[in-house]
Specification:
The complex is a heterotrimer of chains A (310), B (259) and C (401). Chain A is an all-alpha fold. Chain A is built from eleven helices and two strands; from the N terminus they run ααααααααααββα. Chain B is of the alpha/beta class. Classes of the chains: A mainly alpha (310), B alpha/beta (259), C mainly alpha (401). At the A-C interface, α2, α3, α4, α5 and α6 of A face α2, α5, α6, α7 and α8 of C.
């Protein structure tokens, strides 16, 4: 087939040129198709969540009410208890993670040489890949099985710490490496000790990048569900106490409504009526969670753009 | 307050690699000494050993003595941080701290060294240092603006102000004008003439005219050969180096036969 | 450690009695410090000073540990030339604080590094300690049994079905995701204009930002019904055990695999893109110069160079897929393990992670919990191995480039 084609082709095209062109075109098509394939689930999923979730979000009381006393038979309900729980758990997690992660990153970039540094880098990699359910089991094994604690919100925070630390360490590391050595030298040349150089010169210079890393870390853990299942019960009512009792969170609310999805028919006035209150709330909570995470991601990008390093 | 510098048999290593060998010289207080020589001959390396800045690069070591008014800065128990407080440095590229204002840049050294200082003291230091660096008139109205917003030449003078704000004894300058335009270069050179009344100045330069213009003494460095360490060929009065050098290699270099 | 202070008489302008005491004190401290064993941490505390004055044997200097340089300069000089280094702000007190600051800070950072290392060790240790009693009391073989009974007094459990489903669903996700990821990575790095490439990369990253529970509810309620025709078509292929019809609608390994594929797409894409963008320009130009088409250039230069990166990217994706919990737990239908072993991707089942998540409310007795912790331990070992292998490949590549 090649020879037949090439017999008629001009001198400029050697034998096989046709096949080669076809292959090239096929590859180009496939590459473009791959990109299109990635867009399909993203757009489809976002459309689903927005179109199904917007109803609850625009209802009065979604951001102020709770699920107290509301069953799958009842319309309405709010997500305030879940938003509050998520914010509290994530805030505690951030407060613990940030100092540790910053110190680890500083250690790796500014001090680390030798076996401990190599080991630390490796372990941060492993921590990046640790499944959230394993992190949760670990916290369970330590604080509940061993020390006899009760399931509560702060244990979720601890499990999330293990997921957040590697995210912040990695971004901070990159940012510290971007700080020009000239600035460190300028500081040393003024007779400033190393630790003050790091704290007062290097960290402020890398600050926006570090904040980006922290925000990305928050976005990463805010939607994490597995630790909730093991480490805290779901409460339909508001519980602001991280250290005692069941506590709601956005993923917890989604999970709770999901388990009510099956019950869609109720008796009303002697007639069977199909309802979708649980589904409404589930998608409402999903949209709330996505909005929270997306806002955090956008914020991270805006902050990253205002970086002093680049 | 300026100090004399004596280097005795300095050997400078990067790991096992001997970069510069057997350097011996004396630099008088309140003088300007220029280090000249072709690229890679180790003149910047020698400069950085004078305030122990080369140690920032891991694996760099020095043997020999470097005396500051007779005190060996490599003596046991000497803290390099203190050495650097005493011997200031200005770098090739202006490097003001990007997160700080002009004001904060000038007092960065003082503030980071010793914590709290009175505002009036700081104000005084800022004005004195900026005047000393010939920058005061240009920036006095915008001290709170970021230092990175200044022009290249102004930034370099800001770095000089920052270096002299901590009142060092010696000022090292590593090709301070190589990133600057001719007018800014002239400003810095004028400044060096003023600064030498108070400080011992050592300047590394690629520009032989500059060395001739600003320095009283000139040291010529060269590689001992291909793959061999750098060495100090000769150090003498600038006048003599540029008119009647003792060493043939100096003659060849300044007359443009190599380098 | 012979202390060699070069005291030249210099410009001695009188003693300052006030500082004399301070000198004595500081010197005593310095000596005490010199006697301390030099830990790694301390050595690093002086990193900018590293390599201080260590001179080869035979020189007039003694080999002095770097840490020795942490004594304030003033100590050895004050008696000769008090005003020199003590001038201005460098009081002895200030020096002492600065050096302590350096040590404390360096120790803090190293301590944080150590914390991370210990954390992983503790994870392994705790899971092991809690799992062993349960495994010891297991009536069946822990690795090969298909039973899972932890409620009725005696323990009788094995992880074989969990292992099978976990691996099957993850490999399916990988098979679906990797070709697409390579395509997108090529699109971003080789085909698209820079202006297009950035937003595209951002869009792919957005996939990673969506919480997995949302993938879960979307996958089972929206996606599963829509891909049912594909599932039906494949089951009609018949006898092939991987595609056997098990009469499970929606909550199949197939649906789960598709969702997992979408979830791991960003990470695989990111790693592939990264290595493709690092292809040496010289290799690319050499291919162009041979008259290659774009695809031939990619095959000649980009893909061979990026191969280790692609492998490790795929393995990182695999690691992510193995441990995914909530999405899989919401999607997969639970099935009984009594019948003949099912190989089909059109069956339900449970993975390690979803098994643990589904039964979290039953963590009552330590032994019962131990069974689930044992499952978690296997998952930990699995992901650890996969991630470590992936990192090893990436790091080996880094050394070359």
């Amino acid at each position: 087939m090649t020879t037949v084609e090439s017999a008629g082709s001009s001198l400029a095209s050697p034998p096989g040129a046709g096949i080669r062109k076809v292959k090239d075109r096929t590859a180009t098509t496939l590459v473009y198709a791959a990109f299109a394939i990635a867009l399909v689930p993203l757009i489809w999923l976002l459309w689903t969540v927005v179109s199904k979730g917007i109803y609850m979000l625009t209802r009065n009381g979604w951001f102020t009410g709770t699920e107290r006393g509301i069953t799958y038979r009842d319309a309405g309900g709010g997500a305030w208890h879940a938003v509050l729980g998520t914010l509290e758990q994530v805030a505690l997690c951030t407060a613990i993670s940030v100092p540790i992660a910053l110190l680890v990153a500083i250690y790796l970039v500014e001090y680390g040489r030798g076996p401990l540094a190599r080991m630390t880098t490796f372990m941060v990699d492993i921590l990046t890949g640790i499944p959230s359910i394993v992190a949760a089991l670990f916290i369970y094994a330590v604080f509940i099985t061993t020390f006899g604690g009760e399931r509560s919100g702060w244990l979720v925070s601890l499990a999330l710490v293990m997921l957040m630390i590697p995210v912040i360490v990695r971004t901070t590391e990159e940012m510290l490496k971007l700080v020009p050595n000239e600035l460190r030298e300028a500081s040393y040349a003024l007779g400033v000790p190393k630790w003050k150089t790091i704290v007062r010169i290097v960290l402020p210079t890398a600050m926006s990048g570090i904040v980006t890393g922290v925000v990305l870390g928050i976005a990463r853990v805010a939607g994490e569900t597995a630790p909730l299942l093991i480490l805290v019960g779901y409460s339909p009512d508001k519980n602001a106490n991280l250290f005692s009792g069941p506590q709601a969170s956005l993923p917890g609310l989604i999970k709770d409504q999901f388990s009510n999805l099956g019950s869609t028919t109720i008796l009303e006035g002697g007639k069977r009526v199909t309802v979708h209150y649980a589904a409404d709330r589930m998608w409402g909570a999903a949209l709330t969670l996505i909005l929270l995470v997306m806002i955090l991601n956008l914020a991270a990008r805006v902050i990253a753009r205002r970086s002093a390093v680049n | 307050m300026a100090k004399r510098i004596d280097a005795k048999n300095l050997n400078i290593y990067y790991g096992k690699f001997l970069a510069v060998s057997e350097v011996t010289f004396t630099i008088a207080p309140r003088s300007v000494t220029a280090f000249i020589g072709p690229s890679g001959c180790g003149k910047s390396t020698v400069l950085r050993t004078i305030n122990r800045m080369h140690e920032v690069i891991s694996g760099a070591t020095v043997e020999g003595d470097l005396l500051l008014d007779g005190e060996n800065i490599y003596g046991a128990g000497i803290d390099p941080v203190d050495v650097r407080r005493t011997i200031g440095m200005v770098f090739q590229r202006p490097n003001p701290f990007p997160t700080m204002s002009i004001y904060d840049n000038v007092v960065a050294g003082l503030k980071l060294q010793s914590g709290r200082l009175r505002k009036s003291e700081l104000d005084e230091t800022v004005e004195r240092s900026l005047r000393g660096a010939n920058l005061w008139e240009e920036v006095k109205s915008r001290l709170a603006k970021p230092g990175a917003g200044l022009s290249g030449g102004q930034q370099q003078r800001l770095c000089i102000a920052r270096a002299i704000a901590v009142e060092p004894q010696v000022l090292l300058m590593d090709e301070p004008c190589s990133a600057l335009d001719p007018i800014s270069t002239l400003a810095i050179e004028d400044l060096i003439q003023t600064l030498k009344e108070k400080y011992t100045i050592v300047i590394v330069t690629h520009n032989m005219q500059q060395a001739a213009r600003v320095s009283e003494r000139t040291a010529f460095f060269n590689l001992a050969g291909v793959g061999k360490p750098g060495q100090l060929v000769e150090i003498d009065d600038t006048q003599k180096i540029f008119t009647n050098p003792t060493d043939q290699r100096t003659e060849d270099y300044i007359s443009g036969r190599f380098g | 450690m012979t202390e060699r202070t070069s005291r030249h008489s210099g410009t001695s302008d009188g003693d300052q009695p006030r500082t004399a005491e301070a000198i004595a004190l500081a010197r005593a401290k310095a000596e005490a410090r010199a006697n301390e064993a030099l830990s790694d941490v301390e050595r690093q505390a002086d990193a900018p000073d590293e390599g201080g004055v260590n001179s080869p044997a035979g020189s007039t200097f003694s080999r002095r540990p770097v840490v020795g340089s942490s004594e304030p300069l003033g100590v050895s000089t004050l008696d000769d030339t008090p005003e020199v280094f003590g001038a201005g702000s460098t009081s002895l007190d200030g020096n002492g604080r600065a050096r302590i600051g350096d040590r404390v800070f360096a120790s803090l950072t190293a301590g944080a590094g150590l914390f991370v290392v210990l954390l992983i060790a503790l994870v392994a240790l705790f899971l092991l300690v809690k799992a062993i009693p349960a495994i010891a009391h297991d009536k069946s073989n822990f690795l090969t049994s298909r039973h899972w009974d932890t409620t009725s007094g005696a323990l009788d459990f094995g992880v074989l079905p969990l292992l099978w489903t976990t691996v099957l669903i993850s490999v399916l996700a990988l098979v679906l995701a990797v070709p697409v990821a390579i395509g997108i990575a090529l699109f971003i790095s080789q085909y698209a204009h820079k202006r297009v490439a950035r937003p595209v990369a951002y869009v792919v990253d957005l996939l990673a930002a969506i919480p997995s529970i949302i993938y879960g509810i979307w996958g089972i309620t929206v996606l599963a019904p829509k891909i049912q025709p594909v599932a039906d078509a494949l089951t009609h292929l018949g006898a092939f055990p991987l595609f056997a019809d098990k009469n499970v609608k929606g909550g199949t390994v197939f649906t789960g695999g598709v969702i997992l594929a979408v979830m791991i797409l960003p990470i695989v894409t990111a790693v592939c893109r990264d290595v493709y963008e690092r292809t040496p320009q010289a290799n690319i130009e050499a291919a162009w110069a041979l008259g290659a088409t774009r695809w031939e250039m990619i095959r000649l230069a980009v893909l061979p160079y990026g191969k280790p990166g692609m492998i490790s990217g795929a393995m990182l994706g695999l690691g992510r897929a193995l441990g995914e919990t909530i999405a899989i737990s919401l999607i997969l239908s639970k099935v009984s393990n009594t019948g003949p072993f099912s190989f089909s991707i059109f069956d339900g089942g449970e993975t390690f992670a979803s098994k643990i998540a589904n039964n979290a409310s039953e963590f009552n007795s330590p032994q019962q919990t131990g069974a689930y912790i044992a499952a978690g331990l296997v998952l930990f070992v699995l992901t650890f191995a996969v991630n470590a292998a992936a990192r090893a490949i990436v790091n080996r590549r880094k050394e070359f480039s």
